[in-house]
Each structure stands twice: as structure tokens, then as C-alpha cells.
Amino acid sequence: MAGIEKVLNVDNYQAVRNLLGNKDENIKIIEKEMGVNIVVRGNTIKIMGDEEEVENSGNIIKKLLDISSEDKNLGKQEVKYLVGLLKKTPLIDLHELYDEVLQVNYRGKRIKVKTLGQKLYIEAMKRSPIVFAIGPAGTGKTYLAMVMAVKALLNKEVGRIILTRPAIEAGEKLGFLPGDLQDKVDPYLRPLYDALYDILGPEKVINYLNKDIIEVAPLAYMRGRTLDDSFIILDEAQNTTPEQMKMFLTRMGFNSRAVITGDLTQIDLPDNRTSGLNLVQAILKDVDGIEFVYLTKDDVVRHKLVKDIIKAYERYESRK
Description:
11 strands, 6-stranded parallel beta sheet, 12 helices, about 45% helix, alpha/beta, 2 domains, about 15% strand, Rossmann fold
């Protein structure tokens, strides 16, 4: 490749190793995204290519090395996201993006944001009493809302957490389930329990549930209630009707906050009914104290194939 050559000498060899990734896969991503050739020998990184691309690549690698350390391995999906982010906004501070520990789960794992979209979502939840998070699967909409709810509870900012979602079947007919009413609706609420167990641990969750400090219930149970001193999360909100969405939003009492999450590409309402989440964007877009955060496929933090699946469906839907 014709052009110039730039050499970076790095003091921290462990940071270089963490940046390289498995079989140098991260370096290959940077080469492809930036249009340069990169050779790594020990602590020396050599970048070759056109002057502008080489200079930009050097700056990006320095920023990636700056956040790479013995306890921060950079995965290839993360590197691809960060290279794209730094190409668009080269002055962004990656430490600000990654350093804040939102919560430490019951196993001692530090929970942090992994994308810029998630960071914006967290800031919105800190700032506004009502936040709508709209985006595809795998972007952390529900999990991060749960993290902020637990944090508010442990900091005594609220007295309880209320988790709810509409009991809509995702294209399946489950038939007559055994057990009492709670047994019948629990399968719909299982993802909320899973997130709680991951953050607080099963013993503490069961204790809080028994004391009604945490309540997990289908959306229909919210009708007629006033929810004071609560952090309320409505999950799978794309499956609410406009009437249900209005009912939910008007349950908020004093010292309460609400987060509403949903994916408008996965609406399971029957008979092509209008989604309450879809309609509410037009109704509440100019109301002070309410924020809409839109996460994208770039914020997906599940398996790489999830992002590819979302892209494929977007292409299919656009052709339709």
C-alpha cells in the first residue's frame, strides 16, 4: 500500500495484547474499517497507508489502548463499534463512556454501559421522571432500567420497584395453563425475574418479593392504582394498546419514576391494533419531563449474529 508509515511505541504490553484480540481479530477490524495495514511486533504498532487514514488510525488506536488494561479486554464487536464511533466523533472521551459503575451485582461483577446509546439512556433516566427506551432486542433496554431501579431502591430514593408488562402471546397459543392466576401470568414475566436475579441474587429477590418491596405483575393489575414512591418499569410496551398506555402513565404518584421499554419491530397485538408505544411518541413528544431514547443495532450487546439478524430484517422490511 502506497503512502506513509506511522510507528506507535506502547509502554503497556498488556494493553497491546488486550487490544489485539483473539488471533489479532481486533487489529483486522481496524484495518478493514480504516483502510490501512497494521503490523504489531511486541510493544510496537506500525500503521501504513494514506496519510489521513494513518493519522486517524493512530489516534483511534491510542484511544483504544488508553481504555485497554489488565481487566478490560476489548471484544471484536466492541472494537468495531468504537472505531465507528471515533470516526464520527473523534473528540469523545471513552473513559466517560465506560468508567461509571452503575451497580455491582451480587456476584461482585461491576455493571457498566457498553455503548454510547446506552450511556445516553442512563443519563436520560437520571434526568427525567419518565423515559421511553425504544430499540431492537439486545440493546439492554430492560436490564439497564432494572439496574437503575435497584440503584434507586438501595439508595433509598424510592421505597419499591414495580415491574410490569402486557400478557400478550408472541404469536403462540399457550392454551389453558395450570395453577392459580399468578402461575398463569408468570411465564410472561419471566424475563423480568431473570434480570432481577442477575442483579440482586435469588435470595434477596425472594425476600423483596415477599415483603412487596418488589412487585412483578401483568399490566392489567395496574388499573385503578396510584403508585407513590416507586420506580416503575413497563416492559414490552409495544404490545400495549393506546388505552393501556394511557392507563399506565396515569398511575404515577408522588416521588415516582417510570421507564417504558419496547421494540416496535416486534408487535404481537391481534388484528393489527395500534401499538400504544407507537402512538405515544406523537402525543407526548413535546411534554417537559418526558424523554424518548432511541437505541439502534449499534447498541446491541448480544451475540454478533443478533445485530446481523436485525440488519437482515430491516432490509427485508424496507423492500416490502
